[in-house]
Every structure is written in C-alpha cells, then in structure tokens.
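If you are new to this repository, start here. Below is one unmodified record pulled from the training split, so you can see the exact layout before writing a loader.
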Amino acid sequence: MAVQGGSKGLGRLGMLLATAVAPATWGTTYLVTTEMLPADRPLLAAGVRALPAGLILVALSRRLPTGVWWWRSFVLGMLNVGLFFPLIFAGAYRLPGGVAATIGAVSPLIVAGLSFLVLKVRTQPRVLLAGVGGVIGVGLLVLSSQAKIDPIGVGLMLLATTLMATGVVMSARWGRPEGVSLLATTGWQLTVGGMVIVPLMFAVEGMPPVPTGRNLLGFGYLVLIGTALAYVLWFRGIERLGAGVASFLGLVNPVIATLAGLIVLGQTLTPLQVLGLVIALGAMVLGQRAPRRAPEARVEAPVTITRQTRRSEVVEAS
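And here is the target side for that same chain:
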C-alpha cells in the first residue's frame, strides 16, 4: 500500500507555500468585500464566490461525479461551502472581527480531534501545543478590550469552524476518484455549495444591485483567485500534506487580514498585537514540522493504489 503524504525537502516546502496561498487569499476577502463589493450583501459575496467558480472548474475539467461521488460531493460541498459560508457570515455579523477570527483559530484543534476519530491519527503533544498557541496568538493579534461577546454569534462561528474542520478531515479521508483531477472535485463542491447559497441570497437579500466596474473587479478577484484557485490549492494541500498540517496553515488567514489592514488601510499594531503575530506564526511553523514516526504509522492523506499494489493488496475505499 502506498500512502502519499507530501514530499520532503524543497518539495514539501513548496507544497506548504502553495497551500498557504489559499488562506492568504481568504485573508484578503474582508478587505475586498468592504472596499470593492456592494455594502451589506454578505450572501451575494458568498454566492458569487461559490457558484461561478464551481461552474468554471467543472467546465474546464469536463467531468461530473459518478457512483458514490454524487453524495460525497454533496456532503463535502455542504461542509466546505454551502453551510460554512452562510454560518460564518451570520456569525461575523454578530461578532467583532477579532472574536470571529479567534474562534476560527481553534480549527487545528478540532481537526486533531476528528483526525483521531476518523483517520485514527494520534495527535502529538507538539501539535496540541501549536494549536493552543495559534489560538492565543490570533487572540492577541486581533482582539481588543472593547470586543463584545454575543453567545449566538459564538455558537454560529463554532458550528461553522467545526463544519469546515469536518470537511478538511473528510476530504483527507475520501480523497478523490482515481483519474479525476482536483479541478473536477473542487468544482463539484463549489457548485453544490453555490446552488444552496444563491437561492438563500435571493430569499434574504433580494435582487442584487447593478454592479459597478469596481464591483466587477472585486467579484472577479474573489471568483478566480479567492475561490477557484484557492480551493484547488487548499484541497491539494489536504491531499498531499494531510488534514492536520493543512489546518495549521489556516492561521495565515487572520495574519494576512491584519497585515492587509495595516498596509492598505493605514492601521497600526500595538506591542501585544506584534507579540500575537509572532506567537501565531510560531504556532503555524510548529504545526508544519514533519512527525518523526514512520509514514506507515499514520494516515494523513488518501491512499493511492499503484499497479504493483493492485496485484497483491486489496484496499477498501469507504
């Protein structure tokens, strides 16, 4: 049995950097949404991000799901997009951005717990320490003393984070059909999510306004870069690096969001925020360190069946 978990050396570093592009672009979403998109239209932003990007990827791949991948694509699409987007927007409207980002930073810890239950991967103390450090670092980076805690908002954000973490783990568990590209499987999920979000958008927000040129540029960035490209890189990272390692790269999101505000909006960092930035980055690096155990002792990525192993082994795909 051959288990793919990401290459070593420069290959692994390159994969880490490529995967980090996804949460980095997501970290710019708030800035693009507030500066370039119609105001107070979160579901419009979510729907436009998901459905066009999904349809573009499906058209490029020219593949549709078959067999069990119809319901698997629906489940993953709802976890990663269809339920996640509306919940995270609803939670963000009830919470300050710092509180929302801090709650989202617990994702690596949730992934660690789910990986043990689903993938039978034991979490090392180093990973737990990095997860706690990530929450502390992001909290110092983005929280303020004036932050107000809304219990419903906290519940919505926790549910959204748990759903996304579940999507990460199940993506690692199921992988993708043999011979089917990441463009196709990513397109399936985004299309499913978009088909759920768009009707909800019309029901809650009504008809969208006529877009301006600035709006179109913002939508174009979110569709092509922040969604289509980002999700392909994200799912490839989960596949090759493993669910746990990829989840820590999510800490790039609030870091980039803070830096974007610093550079574009002229915001400043306090000494505590600088400390939080250092802790968050340190936690992310600690979470990326390759475990010392042999690859056979863990399952971090989908099983790839080679011609040689097909002859001598039977792999159960569940």
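Two things worth knowing about this chain: The chain is about 75% helix and 0% strand. The mean pLDDT is 79.
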